[in-house]
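Hi C.,

You asked whether I'd gotten around to modeling the 227-residue construct. I have! Everything is below, sequence then structure, no commentary in between.
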Amino acid sequence: MNIPLLRTSLLERRYKTAHTQIDLFKQLCFEMSEKDTVSIMGASGSGKSTLLHAMGGLDCPDAGEVFFRGDSIYKMGHRWRGTYRNQHVGFIFQSYHLLSELTIQENVALPAQIHKGRKNAMHMAEELLDAIGLSDRLTHRPQELSGGEQQRVAIARALVNNPSLILADEPTGNLDAATGEKVLHYLFQLIESRGHSLVLVTHTQQVAELCAKNYMLKAGILKEVDV
């Protein structure tokens, strides 16, 4: 029997305010296989980012479980979860979260240095930056790049450890249409050539269409849809 790469079982997440309780999702079930590309759409505040964070081991759900290759990530210890986030998952956020004091190459290499050593990590970073068209910017700082270039650097950083799973949270949300299209071109080109799996959160149908499977999160329910 094939074990899914990622699976959620009866996942629940809620927030309590002074007057009410907000249920972002109830008994949410989802699974994906190796090399799947999946989009999750939904209105602002529907819980898309929270779901992505739960999948990535960043936000413990109130109930239910998240499984990575059969292991329940929230039943494992903090050390295991740290390894999961570093080696098996690559995060891409709407805000690029690059370190201004480091060069572009150093930013990309940073997640790989612990396990690969600085020399190997810097070489891996250089190869990825070349693949996204930024080989001439290795020694630049993030503030010297445009928004689209910074997001391309963030993509390279997410991929540097060759993770099985890429979690992308509105990766073009801060970009204009033309720049966003270019960023997505590089992202999907790398995912296809390197064999990564992808969960992409977006509110844009045109972006969702780039993925093989599409889901809608609405009123706490995640359903597969045609776009």
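If it helps when you're writing up: The chain has eight helices and ten strands.

Thanks,
B.
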